[in-house]
């Protein structure tokens, strides 16, 4: 029998190298059931309540979590039709369906109305229904546990901010939404920055819907987007991320299209999802399983950091289906910068990795950066930002001659993509654990693809050398 020792050694090193890594989990936090105005096809689908909807969602492709966010008020039957006693029922059903490590089931509310100067806000983490209605037929008492006036968005954001377990996520936002006095000038994206609101709001979608879609073939995508609203909110000074919504009103949870809100977390648990949302460790993706690493010297998307060096950003696009990135862009802006809300400071075509160092910054100003990726098939991915404040005196990075580079994928089976911060003469080599040279290439470029299809599986060292310095990284070939 073939010896298992090499395999055991390989798995040991693999676990050591990657046990502390973040993982990617794909899902949606905006959906409705027949508790309000969802499951419109319940007669034919046989699914009407949250418990059945969670069961359905668990079987959807590339779908690790579902948040059901029922409308917080009644108005009329199924329009939206929600009554206060159902809130506790929904929370109980979510608790029963939830399986940390396997599938997350969450229950929350979609607060507000969509009329002009108002807007919808997804709220999770409250164990009581927030609302304003009285006198709802068939219901004794108020149609809420906690009162908040219908158009009081100042009140709702402050209630979320004061609840340490809660977060708010803007649903299909408009530039006239979330006003304080019913005028365009006091809409959230137009009035001055509010720190209390910033503490409550964690994100918004890249796309939402299609809400009325009854399709289950994963291909019924919304053609709309909220990209400009996202840039405007960052420009206003808000620290928020960008995700993806389905806003399901039919029984197609996870299946109306392949778009996903993707969270980055150590493991799949409610606690980790809550942390990822609050820390903005998430992104929005048309693609159902694309894994995006956007980091500043190892600090992942959502990080708010400062330092005395010029920041170096790395982007890796990893699609298990083998889809390639057509373009990778890095955007940059800062609060009240004037002119554009953000501008493209780096762009790379036809590669899955890129590295960028920003030398055009000033001290004591907080900048925001985010990555935008378009795949070859046109699918769109946008990350949450990284905020960086350079502290005086600003200097070049320690060991300025140190080579900054990215490589993908790791583990690798055939082609290894290597992206370097600058174009220069490099010697790229691979050695095994004994130090034996396996591959060596000399290049003058900032982008390179290395063919490893003839290398045996195992643990190796990837070495990049210039005439000034050399750097080594661990590499697994499978």
Give the CATH level 1 class of the largest domain: Alpha Beta
CATH A-level architecture of the largest domain = Alpha-Beta Barrel
How many domains? The number is 3
The largest β sheet comes out as: 15 strands, mixed
CATH-defined topology of the largest domain = TIM Barrel
State the share of residues found in helices, binned by percent: 10-25%
Shape: globular
Can you give keywords for this protein?
478 residues; alpha+beta; TIM Barrel; Immunoglobulin-like; 15-stranded mixed β-sheet; five-stranded antiparallel β-sheet; 26 strands; globular
Explained architecture:
The protein is an alpha+beta fold and 478 residues long. It has three domains: 24-287, TIM Barrel (Alpha-Beta Barrel); 304-395, Immunoglobulin-like (Sandwich); 405-477, Sandwich (Immunoglobulin-like). Helix content is 15%, strand content 36%. The chain is built from eight helices and 26 strands. The protein has helices at 5-18, 42-45, 50-58, 85-97, 153-161, 195-200, 227-236, 270-278, and strands at residues 23-28, 65-71, 104-111, 120-124, 130-131, 146-147, 167-171, 201-205, 241-243, 260-265, 282-285, 291-296, 299-300, 304-309, 312-318, 325-334, 343-349, 353-357, 366-375, 380-383, 386-395, 405-408, 415-432, 437-451, 458-465, 470-477. It has a 15-stranded mixed sheet that branches. The longest helix is centred in the first third of the chain and has 14 residues, at 5-18. The radius of gyration is 24 Å and the shape is globular. 45% of the residues are buried. The model is unreliable at 1-20 (pLDDT under 50).
